[in-house]
């Protein structure tokens, strides 16, 4: 009895998001779910801006949600956001270049605000022609990367995301799923890659911050143990 009483109490491990979840795989799933819902929310808000200004047009029979958006847009954007948010920290680890530039939530929130502002400008601000608008948004998007990221992997992934997303948009418009008013870059608007680039950088920053928070909490728990 005396020996049992003298045995030290082992602290119970706690997960970074849910105290009872300590599995790394499950925490990765939780992080992906968080990124998914962030992407869904941003898609609903930003797509509403585009539709209100008649930048994007959907057939009447697919406008089914209370947010005046095609039902498939938020889930697709949420899935893409989860993939991008998980890919950025994974790429950082693979390259052995942990991203430490402006790693705090206030910086991430400012990055989201700038991204929303860029998207808002594409729908609300009137320019003399699409070339001026595209060049302005390109400069703002690169400025967003320089202000909140500055990593080579971030820039490379942003360009890749912009290319793939623009290609998918071209195919969707070509097949009549939706359309853009006044297309000037094949079937879409020439500034669309800038929006995708800025969106990739933004979701990458959110994903990196969530990954860093997870590592920080796990490190603190290990230190306490």
From TrEMBL:
<keyword id="KW-0472">Membrane</keyword>
<dbReference type="InterPro" id="IPR025929">
    <property type="entry name" value="INSIG_fam"/>
</dbReference>
<feature type="transmembrane region" description="Helical">
    <location>
        <begin position="131"/>
        <end position="148"/>
    </location>
</feature>
<dbReference type="GO" id="GO:0006695">
    <property type="term" value="P:cholesterol biosynthetic process"/>
</dbReference>
<feature type="transmembrane region" description="Helical">
    <location>
        <begin position="69"/>
        <end position="88"/>
    </location>
</feature>
<keyword id="KW-0812">Transmembrane</keyword>
<protein>
    <recommendedName>
        <fullName>Insulin-induced gene protein</fullName>
    </recommendedName>
</protein>
<dbReference type="GO" id="GO:0032933">
    <property type="term" value="P:SREBP signaling pathway"/>
</dbReference>
<comment type="function">
    <text>Mediates feedback control of cholesterol synthesis.</text>
</comment>
<feature type="transmembrane region" description="Helical">
    <location>
        <begin position="186"/>
        <end position="206"/>
    </location>
</feature>
<dbReference type="Pfam" id="PF07281">
    <property type="entry name" value="INSIG"/>
</dbReference>
<keyword id="KW-0256">Endoplasmic reticulum</keyword>
<keyword id="KW-0753">Steroid metabolism</keyword>
<dbReference type="GO" id="GO:0008289">
    <property type="term" value="F:lipid binding"/>
</dbReference>
<feature type="transmembrane region" description="Helical">
    <location>
        <begin position="28"/>
        <end position="49"/>
    </location>
</feature>
<keyword id="KW-1207">Sterol metabolism</keyword>
<dbReference type="GO" id="GO:0032869">
    <property type="term" value="P:cellular response to insulin stimulus"/>
</dbReference>
<keyword id="KW-1133">Transmembrane helix</keyword>
<comment type="similarity">
    <text>Belongs to the INSIG family.</text>
</comment>
<dbReference type="GO" id="GO:0036316">
    <property type="term" value="P:SREBP-SCAP complex retention in endoplasmic reticulum"/>
</dbReference>
<keyword id="KW-0443">Lipid metabolism</keyword>
<keyword id="KW-0446">Lipid-binding</keyword>
<dbReference type="GO" id="GO:0032937">
    <property type="term" value="C:SREBP-SCAP-Insig complex"/>
</dbReference>
<keyword id="KW-0153">Cholesterol metabolism</keyword>
<feature type="transmembrane region" description="Helical">
    <location>
        <begin position="155"/>
        <end position="174"/>
    </location>
</feature>
């Amino acid at each position: 009895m005396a020996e049992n009483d003298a045995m030290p109490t082992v602290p119970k491990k706690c997960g970074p998001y849910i105290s009872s979840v300590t599995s790394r795989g499950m925490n990765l799933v939780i992080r992906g779910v968080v990124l998914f819902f962030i992407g869904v929310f941003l898609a609903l808000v930003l797509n509403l801006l585009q539709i209100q200004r008649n930048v994007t047009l959907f057939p009447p029979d697919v406008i089914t949600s209370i947010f005046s958006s095609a039902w498939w847009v938020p889930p697709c954007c949420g899935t893409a956001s989860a993939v991008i948010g998980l890919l950025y920290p994974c790429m950082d680890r693979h390259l052995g270049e942990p991203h430490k530039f402006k790693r705090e939530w206030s910086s991430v929130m400012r990055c989201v605000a700038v991204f929303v502002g860029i998207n808002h400008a594409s729908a609300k601000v009137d320019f003399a022609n699409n070339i001026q608008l595209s060049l302005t948004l390109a400069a703002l998007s690169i400025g967003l990367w320089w202000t909140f990221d500055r990593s080579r992997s971030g820039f490379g992934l942003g360009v890749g995301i912009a290319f793939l997303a623009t290609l998918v948009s071209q195919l969707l418009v070509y097949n009549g799923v939706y359309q853009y008013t006044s297309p000037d870059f094949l079937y879409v608007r020439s500034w669309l890659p800038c929006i995708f680039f800025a969106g990739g950088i933004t979701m990458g920053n959110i994903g990196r911050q969530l990954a860093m928070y997870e590592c920080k909490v796990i490190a603190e728990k290990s230190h306490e143990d």
